[in-house]
Amino acid sequence: MKQRLLELLGVEHPILEGGLAYIGDGRLAAAVSNAGGFGQVGSAGRSLEDFEKQIQIAIESTNKPFGVNLPIGEHSDPSERVELILKYKQHLRAVSISAGNPRPFIPVFQAAGLPVMVVISTAMHAQKAEQAGADILIAEGYEAGGHNGPSEVTTFALIPQVASCVSVPVIAAGGVADGRGLVAALALGAAGVQLGTRLVATVESPAHEDYKQKIVAARAEDTTMIERSVGRVTRVLKAPYVNGVLTFERTFPSSDELYPLVKGEKNRIGALEGDLEHGFAYSGQGCGLIHSIPTVADVISTMVEEARAALRHLPTL
Ligand SMILES: Cc1cc2nc3c(=O)[nH]c(=O)nc-3n(C[C@H](O)[C@H](O)[C@H](O)COP(=O)(O)O)c2cc1C
């Protein structure tokens, strides 16, 4: 499965950059691909024009394969994003789809020669996505930064259950931030891993310096969930603004009433301005494993070295 994944994506290491709203720009995607992983330009938090510009930056900054992430539900009309992705199909290696029903989109991208990765958070949705034709499944556990599946299944429980019921490669996402996580994911039946929070705190990431430092200082218990009162679960750093959101949620607001507090602009303020008094920033529980702000190349080479060391250690147990 790992070999199949590496061939499908044309990469050296089974390490992917997740779609990262506001953060996953062309420079970061190229840095991940240049380091032997699979970078993805994120569509969330960008205008259509900026999404195109970031794809162009990635094209200019790497000759290694990279892809794009399309969170369907984040866009009122995803069709113009689909057209844009198809326009650049000869430069892209794969598309990942999240936050919505992937079924109508899978054949469109595959017809253009682009393998499709679908983000799922339960074994049932994994089977559905495979039946719909997904080439790769990204199984994301509840430890992950950002929007999580409402069933709140953890990575450790999710990966083996998904791997047992599908025959396409499975990528583990959520809580992986070092080489031990990579080896554990492979042991659980994954073919590779997808990183989110670890890549936010890197030199090449456009996240505000204060946001990066908050991740470095945070431990797993310094994240919390917002939006649960309206049936969504979103993992963010604990901070003054988030306290206000949680207080408001205790009044059981409707989704429409809560929206002004949790809309993308509030995430932009937290992530790009580093202002956690007036906005929020995503982080997974793996923040407790992050102690520095290295380059992306360092993150990936260290992760590979740590994984090799962990594999050498296992037979001695
Ligand atoms: C800052 C940030 C933004 C994210 N934005 C998206 C997104 O736009 N689309 C998506 O599919 N997933 C998104 N995610 C989830 C990641 O792609 C990834 O699956 C997740 O972060 C993995 O868990 P980790 O944070 O523990 O590494 C985001 C995560 C973070 C931390």
From TrEMBL:
GO terms for molecular function: nitronate monooxygenase activity. The keyword Cell membrane does not apply. The keyword Transferase does not apply. Pfam families: NMO (PF03060). Transmembrane segments: none annotated. Keywords: Flavoprotein, FMN, Oxidoreductase. InterPro entries: Aldolase_TIM, NMO. Nitronate monooxygenase that uses molecular oxygen to catalyze the oxidative denitrification of alkyl nitronates. Acts on propionate 3-nitronate (P3N), the presumed physiological substrate. Probably functions in the detoxification of P3N, a metabolic poison produced by plants and fungi as a defense mechanism. This is Probable nitronate monooxygenase.
